[in-house]
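Working notes for the structural subgroup meeting. M.R. asked for a predicted model of this chain before we commit to crystallization trials. I am recording the input and output together here so anyone reviewing the notebook later can reproduce the run.

Input as submitted:
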Amino acid sequence: MQLSQIVINFLTTFWYFIPIALLLAVIKTPWFKGVMGEFIVNCLSKIFLNKNEYHLIKNVTLPTDDGTTQIDHIIISKYGIFVVETKNMKGWIFGQPKQKMWTQKIFKHSSKFQNPLHQNYKHAKTIETLLGLDPKQLHSLIVFVGDSTFKTKMPDNVTHAIGYIKFIKSKKETVFTEDELKAVITAIQQGRLSRSLKTHRDHVKHVKNIVAEKQNNKTPICPKCGSSMILREAKKGQNAGTKFWGCSNFPKCKGIVKFT
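Returned structure, recorded in token form:
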């Protein structure tokens, strides 16, 4: 039997494995994880937040001086604007508010990712500038979904799934009048870029350029805590005069990387 006939017979008999395999491949992609994370946050918002008090705007792309910034969710209420960044991750999560990089650990494998608080800071500042708001009128909120566990103490605005509803409802001080609230919603809707494939592609290209610039940066990241490092010089001992990279969090962190 020819090879082509064998392939045809196999596909005819086991055709149903093909869509299953494709589905499994899609489920494992970062894109799908991001979509699912946003979907979970959307559902929780619709179920637990009164739509007469809280207005949800999803997937907002806003122009910035150096390109664009993309925000997962903006929840607007008289108690302020909640700028929400979603992370669909599993494993142990280590991080401090001032660290540039946080750590995800799954069994023996560790990987670094950008501090989401820093990432969301730009989002909040963009909205603040666009609307001419007081920083006190905005709340940055990070929501982790998926099977992850915080292994370091996190601030109140870094939560797991349903925890973000609790954070939002904890804000009771009115910072917008009804007229101001309507003006804020209108300004964001009018200021956002159109939800199109081109907008998404342009933003992805912008993000890739930023990543490439960071990769070209010679300054390393501390292997112990994920903070940026500073070029130092040993002052005494047998290595006096030798340059090395020392953690910017010294003396709290004594991470060192050899200078080459």
